[in-house]
Structures are given as C-alpha cells and as structure tokens.
Amino acid sequence: MPVIKVWFHPESPYARRVLCFLDWTGISATRIQVALENREHLEKTYLDITPFGRVPAIVDNGFALSESLAILRYLVARDGLFEWYPEDLQRRAVADQWLEYVSQHGAPPFIELAWNLNMAARYGLKPRVGAAEAAAKKIKRELPVLEARLTQCSFLSGEGRPGLADVALYPFAALAVEAQIDLPRVAPHLAAWMIRMADLPVPAITT
Predict the structure, then answer these.
(1) Distance, CA of 165 to CA of 73 (rounded, Å)
(2) b/e map of 94-116 (b: 16 or more CB within 10 Å)?
(3) Domain boundaries, the chain
(4) Which residues pair with 65 in a beta bridge?
(5) Tell me, what's the pLDDT at 2?
C-alpha cells in the first residue's frame, strides 16, 4: 500500500490529531511541514491539495483530503480500524455524539485561550481584544461536561479504550499549560485521562 503524505504544522492541534493517530495505529506516512508563518499554506502547490489552505491535509495514492476529522474517519475505513470508530449503528452514534461535541464545544476553547494568551505573541501577532476572556468563559462551561464523562468512563468513547473523540480532544487539551489552565486542580479526571492518552502504546514499525 502506498505511503500516505501528510502536511502539518507542529503547533496546529488539528494537524496533531492526525499525527497522533498515525503514531498510535502505526500507519506509515511521509510528513511534510507547512510553514504557516511564511504563508506556504496559501501557495498554489498547497492549494492544489486542499482548497481550504489549512493543515492538515493528506494525499493517499493520488487521493487528496483535508479537515482533520474527515481524515481520521477515512483512515479508520481505509485500514479497518473500527476499534477506534465502531461499525455498529448505535455505538457509532455515541462515538459521533462525542466527536461532534469535542469538535464544536470541548476543543475550541483550549486553542482560543492558548493562542490569545501565549501563541500569538510567538508569531508577532496581537491577541484579539476580549478573546481570552470569552474563551475562559467557554472553558469554564465545558470542563464540567468533560469531567462528568470521564468520571463515568476511562475514555470519551465509553468503549473502555480510546476512540476518535479522544484523539480529537487530546492535542487541544495538551495546550492546557499555554492556556494557563491547571488541569490537575480544576479538572482532575481530565488530567488523569491526559496521562492515559500520553501512555498509549505506539506500534513498532517494521521494514
């Protein structure tokens, strides 16, 4: 099977969703870093791959795809990795419920806080006025939801093992320090989940 090419930026949690999944599943991929700071994502060669001009994007034997969640679902189906995203209708519906929640509500406040409190300055940019305060309100609303779920289950998937919702949240929650969130204090179950995710085994790659 041809090796996938994946375009990423190391500080993009969206791209890190795909990179983490590749690592945890042992899928071989050629990784190509896109210098967002140099506007490489707006060059024609990259826009020919993805019209959105964002990372991540992949090319699999000539087939181009972007948007992190679409890529994750594609990789599951491509390699039959249904332990990450069940085929059963009702189990998949629960998986989709949490995947949608993470995408729309659980993950965004982490990057919004991290960007406006720390990351923007690294790129010589100014945070948006009031953005950090708005993100702080969002995270205060969403952390109890994540805590409640992780009090009941070891993983968001509810399957006793991580699923795509866990993959989707992990790179965002990993921004907690930059977002100035003390996870062990304000969300201890989420902090424990972070450790479980970080400890996931990475398959040995054989050649």
Answers:
(1) 11
(2) bbeebbebbeeebbbbbbbbbbb
(3) 4-79, 89-198
(4) 58
(5) 64
Write phi, then psi, for 141 (nearest 5 degrees).
-80, -35
Query: H helices of 26-178, where?
Result: 44-47, 68-79, 89-101, 108-114, 120-122, 131-152, 164-173
- With helix as H, strand as E and coil as C, how does 27-49 read? CCEEEEECCHHHCHHHCHHHHCC
Q: Residue 56: is the preceding peptide bond cis (ω within 30°)?
A: yes
The backbone torsions φ and ψ at residue 66, rounded to the nearest 5 degrees and listed phi first, read: -135, 180
Q: Are 165 and 65 in contact (CB under 8 A)?
A: no
Instruction: Compute the distance between CA of residue 96 and CA of residue 172 in angstroms, rounded to an integer.
Output: 18
Write out pLDDT tens, residues 150-167: 999 999 999 999 999 999
- Return the residue matching tokens 């790659």: 205
User: Which residues touch 19 (CB under 8 Å, ≥6 apart)?
Assistant: 6, 8, 31, 56
Distance CA 163, CA 123 (A): 33
Q: What is the pLDDT of residue 169?
A: 98
Q: How far apart are CA 204 and CA 173, in angstroms?
A: 26
Chain segment 136-150, per-residue pLDDT in tens = 999 999 999 999 999
| CATH fold of 89-198 | Glutathione S-transferase Yfyf (Class Pi); Chain A, domain 2 (1.20.1050)
Is the pLDDT at 81 greater than 70, yes or no?
Answer: yes
What CATH code is assigned to 4-79? Answer: 3.40.30.10
Q: For the residues 102-127, what does the mean pLDDT come to?
A: 93
